[in-house]
Amino acid sequence: MSLFLQNNRTNENHRGYMFLSPVNPKTDYVIWVSYSRFVCTNAIWAPARQPGPLYSLTNTGSSGTSLLHAALELPTRTTTRSGHRVWHIYISYEIEAADISGISANLLLQDNVPSVTNISIDTTELNAGTTIGKHYRRISVNEPAFINTPSSLSIELEITKSSFATVRLYGARIEYDYDAN
C-alpha cells in the first residue's frame, strides 16, 4: 500500500506525491489503495498491465455480478492523534467494449467485537458511472464516523456486467483527517 500525504492548509505537496484536485473538498490526508488490495470472491479478476506503467485488476469475458472487497488501512492512533474521519472515497476504473449494468458500494466498519456496522454513504455519483470510458467516481460519507478504536474499515464494490464488457479497476483514493488529542 502506498501513502500519499498533502497538507492542504499550506498547500504543500510532498515530493512526487499526488495533488488534490481543486474541485474536490479539501481534507488533511489521502491514501491510495492499489488494485492489488481488492479481492474478488465470486468471479475471475486478474492483474493486468496496460501500456505504460499502469496496472489494474481486470475482468473480461464473464457476465454476472462481481463482489470485490478491500481492507482500507488508515494510520493508527498516536499520542497526538486521537482518531480519524473518512470523508470521501474515489473509485478509479475503466469500462471498455460495452456498458455495464450497474456499480454500487458498501462501506463497513468492524470493531474488535465481531460486529459489523454499515457506514451511511452516498453512491449517487458512483452509480452513474456505467458507460464506456474512464471513470473516477466519488463516494461521500454522509456522517463521517470518528474512528478511535482498533477497528477494520473496508469497502465492497458490486459490479454487474455482460460478457461483452471489460472492466479495469485501478484502485481507490481515501480522503480523511485526524482529530488531535
Query: What structural category arises from helix and sheet content?
Result: mainly beta
How many DSSP-defined strands? 15
What gyration radius follows from the Cα positions, in whole Å?
A: 17 Å
User: Which blocks of ≥5 consecutive residues have pLDDT under 50?
Assistant: 1-25
Order of helices and strands: EEEEEEEEEEEHEEEE
Count of separate DSSP helical elements: 1
Q: Tell me, rounded to a whole number, the average pLDDT.
A: 80
CATH class: Mainly Beta
Topology:
Elements: E1 2-7, E2 12-13, E3 29-34, E4 39-40, E5 46-50, E6 54-59, E7 64-72, E8 81-96, E9 102-110, E10 116-119, E11 121-122, H1 124-127, E12 133-141, E13 146-147, E14 152-161, E15 166-180
Antiparallel strand pairs: 1-2, 1-3, 3-15, 4-7, 5-6, 6-15, 7-14, 8-12, 8-13, 8-15, 9-10, 9-14, 11-12
Describe this structure in words.
The protein is mostly beta strands and 181 residues long. It has a single domain, classed as Jelly Rolls (Sandwich). The chain is 2% helix and 57% strand. The protein has one helix at residues 124-127; strands spanning 2-7, 12-13, 29-34, 39-40, 46-50, 54-59, 64-72, 81-96, 102-110, 116-119, 121-122, 133-141, 146-147, 152-161, 166-180. Strands 1, 2, 3, 5, 6, 8, 11, 12, 13 and 15 form a ten-stranded antiparallel β-sheet that branches. Strand 5 (46-50) and strand 6 form a beta hairpin. The longest helix has 4 residues, at 124-127. Residues 1-25 have low confidence and may be disordered.
